[in-house]
Write a structure and sequence with these properties.
Elements (H helix, E strand, L loop, with lengths): L1 E9 L5 H16 L8 E7 L10 E7 L2 H9 L1 H11 L3 E10 L1
Antiparallel strand pairs: 1-3, 1-4, 2-3
């Protein structure tokens, strides 16, 4: 199993209401990839955080293998979600992948 963790910081120019809508869209569309992308077994998007946090969104996902992670990254459904809901709205992206 592979853990795929992402932290995102939303664009500063987004209003509070826009950030709320973006978070909702990202959460809904990424979590919907389970059962669509082969090897993606879990997807948990966190948008609520303590004031001490430096990120706006966390993605905590699990995949069956490193090969499944590679497939996820290029899967058309994932690319669509990333290009439509994530990339246009984030200024910072940090990731960590590890085997469990």
């Amino acid at each position: 199993m592979v853990k795929h963790i992402i932290l995102w910081k939303l664009n500063d120019e987004l209003s509070t209401e826009q950030k709320k809508a973006v978070k909702t869209d990202i959460k809904k569309n990424l979590e919907a990839l389970v059962g669509v992308v082969p090897g993606l077994t879990k997807m948990n998007i966190r948008t609520e955080f303590l004031a001490s946090s430096s990120a706006d969104i966390m993605m905590d996902s699990e995949l069956e293998s490193n090969e499944a992670l590679k497939g996820y990254q290029t899967h058309p459904s994932h690319v669509h979600v990333a290009d439509t809901y994530v990339r246009p709205n984030v200024s910072v992206r940090l990731s960590m992948d590890y085997e469990i």
